[in-house]
Structure formats: C-alpha cells, structure tokens
Design goal:
By secondary structure, the chain is α+β, with helices and mostly antiparallel strands. It has four helices and eight strands; from the N terminus they run E-E-H-H-E-E-E-H-E-H-E-E. The two termini are 30 Å apart.
Length: 171
C-alpha cells in the first residue's frame, strides 16, 4: 500500500494509488457528478441513509463543494464502481476554522468488511491533521464502535458531535 509521510495513502487530484492491489480499490478525489455517485446515493437512500442525498444537493447548489482550506471529498473505486465515499469539511457547527468534520461516510454493502471505511476515514484524518486541531463527527449509534476503534473519543452533551479526535494542528 502506498503511503504519505503522514502515514495515510497518497492521493492525487485525479487518481490515487491502488489500495490493496489484490483487491483492486483505487482512492481518488471525488466530484459527485458522475453516474457512479448516483448509484451509490440511491443505495444509501434505500438503506434509509440520506447523507449522500445531502451531499449531492449541497454540491449541486454550491453550498458545499469541499473547496475551503483543508477540505476534500474522497471516493474509493472498484473499477468503474464507486464503492465508498467520505468527506472532510471545516466544521460548520463551530466558530473558527480549527475544527474539521468527517462528512458523508458511506460504503456500498457489496464492499463492506473490506476495510474501505477505515481507509476513507484514515485518509480524512491524514488530511485533517495538516489543517485542524480537532476532527468531529456525528455518527449513528451503529457506527460508534467503528469510530472508537479509529481513535475517536465519545462526546456527551453536544448536539452535533458524537465523537472527536484531537489532532493538535490548528491554523
């Protein structure tokens, strides 16, 4: 597996290295305007998750194109199939620009339990570590263990945060 000095996978603007060559996954920056995104968005909606619908709507309206300093949207590809997606934004629920937020993580049912979610979030953590002091997320209860295994700490009493990772960078 290719790596950056920070320990995460290397990511180019158009194409990243193959992740796990025996599996054939490729990590790339993502623009959610391709047909493969629409298929993944529909799968997530049918499972009762609306994060990719919100992602597509935010992109189409221009509200969120992941273009601010430190932000990024990543897709994990298996051939022409988009197998998973995860984004990083400046956290809109906090003043200032020193808190990042994991956004819109979803992996297709066909590709779960292959480490794609972990690779996507580790990519976001690596990116966030260069720009933010902390990384927040609001996860559904079934994902709490996943985030905690990645090093996030559970947060109680905050409306928009279930888990936080202290990164220590900041602007």
């Amino acid at each position: 597996m290719g790596g950056s000095p920070e320990g995460g996978p290397q990511i180019g603007p158009e194409i990243g290295p193959e992740i796990g060559p025996e599996v054939g996954y490729v990590l790339k920056r993502l623009r959610p305007t391709v047909a493969a995104f629409d298929a993944l968005k529909e799968e997530s909606r049918l499972e009762g998750y609306w994060m990719l619908v919100r992602l597509g709507d935010g992109w189409a309206s221009g509200r969120n194109k992941f273009l601010k300093r430190g932000e990024g949207l990543f897709g994990m590809w298996h051939g022409r199939e988009l197998a998973g997606v995860c984004g990083l934004n400046i956290d809109p629920y906090f003043e200032g620009r020193d808190q990042g937020r994991v956004r819109h993580l979803f992996v297709s049912a066909r590709h779960r339990r292959n480490g794609l979610g972990r690779m996507l979030v580790e990519t976001v953590i690596g990116q966030a570590g260069q720009y933010f002091a902390v990384l927040n997320t609001r996860a559904p209860p079934e994902a709490f263990g996943f985030y905690e295994r990645l090093g996030f700490q559970r947060v109680e009493g905050e409306e928009f945060v279930t888990h936080r990772m202290v990164l220590g960078k900041g602007n």
